Inverse folding.
């Protein structure tokens, strides 16, 4: 029974991916943005109507700089991630998921538009913008009546770079006056601050469908997890990278508890992924951004459907 259910859900995923291909086709074909969205929606309606996907809330979680092969559910035993394991056990884990760029802004531009950097034009962090003529997932869902909110943890995804298209609320709000010098990767906030803002927003969304994008930056440099993870994983610079991942797992547990308390978990499709990985000294690269080895571009992808919907 469980196997048949998983096969059926895999069929649903195939339909979603097919719909995404049509979405990408219309992105290229339609010069008028509204006409393009309308055509996209009709395609999704016809293909997804059997699974009633439009009845669900949608949460996209992107954990910055998270290697797939540093999670327990992907076979790694040095970092404890029970909450992410639980998400994987309840959902579908994609074993080999490759991002389109080893950099935060270009990769998120691809995630939110379903297109390659060659198409959306965002080639690097800073100095590049997602132009208005590109259609984001938030814009498509907003047209279908979804309330849309984004919560980002780093200045590299500030709304000034164009990713706020289609979002009713975009939580960036970085106080740049606190920094002597402003760099894209140094201006950031810890994950607990991000999810607290998510909680506030979700409190007001109980009566309508919503799409929330939650971005957590903790595994990115500098590796400085809070206690007890700093002590538990201390021992090497890269060990603290593991502490950051363990801390994110803790946040995932708290977030799940909130969703259960508000009776939202069984109404919500959850997508858990990352924008890129981290070399951790492999191939003589300490972090990321230069090479496209698996350490930099293979990231987790877990999709959890509500149990009572399928």
């Amino acid at each position: 029974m469980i196997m048949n259910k998983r096969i059926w859900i895999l069929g649903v995923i195939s339909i979603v991916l097919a719909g995404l291909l049509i979405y990408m086709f219309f992105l290229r074909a339609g010069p008028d943005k509204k006409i393009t969205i309308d055509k996209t929606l009709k395609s999704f309606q016809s293909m997804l109507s059997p699974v009633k996907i439009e009845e669900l809330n949608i949460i996209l979680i992107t954990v910055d700089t998270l290697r797939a092969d540093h999670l327990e559910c992907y076979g790694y035993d040095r970092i404890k991630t029970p909450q992410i394991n639980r998400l994987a056990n309840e959902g579908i884990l994609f074993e080999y998921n490759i991002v389109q760029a080893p950099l935060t802004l270009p990769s998120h531009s691809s995630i939110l538009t379903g297109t390659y950097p060659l198409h959306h034009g965002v080639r690097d962090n800073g100095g590049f913008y997602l132009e208005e003529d590109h259609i984001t997932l938030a814009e498509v869902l907003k047209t279908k009546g979804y309330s849309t909110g984004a919560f980002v943890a780093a200045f590299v995804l500030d709304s000034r770079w164009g990713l706020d298209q289609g979002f009713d609320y975009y939580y960036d709000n970085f106080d740049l006056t606190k920094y002597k010098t402003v760099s894209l990767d140094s201006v950031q906030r810890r994950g607990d601050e991000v999810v607290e803002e998510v909680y506030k927003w979700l409190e007001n969304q109980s009566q309508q469908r919503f799409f929330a994008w939650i971005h957590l930056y903790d595994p990115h440099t500098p590796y400085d997890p809070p206690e007890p993870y700093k002590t538990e994983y201390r021992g090497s610079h890269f060990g603290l990278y593991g502490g950051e991942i363990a801390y994110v797992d803790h946040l995932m547990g708290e977030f799940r508890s909130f969703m259960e308390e508000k009776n939202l978990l069984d109404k919500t499709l959850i997508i858990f992924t990352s924008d890129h990985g981290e070399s951790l000294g492999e191939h003589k690269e300490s972090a990321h951004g230069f090479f496209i080895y698996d350490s930099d571009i293979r990231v987790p992808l877990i999709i959890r459907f509500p149990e009572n919907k399928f």
In short: Strands lie at 57-63, 92-93, 97-98, 147-151, 169-171, 210-216, 268-273, 298-299, 301-304. Residues 102 and 292 are 7 Å apart (CA to CA).
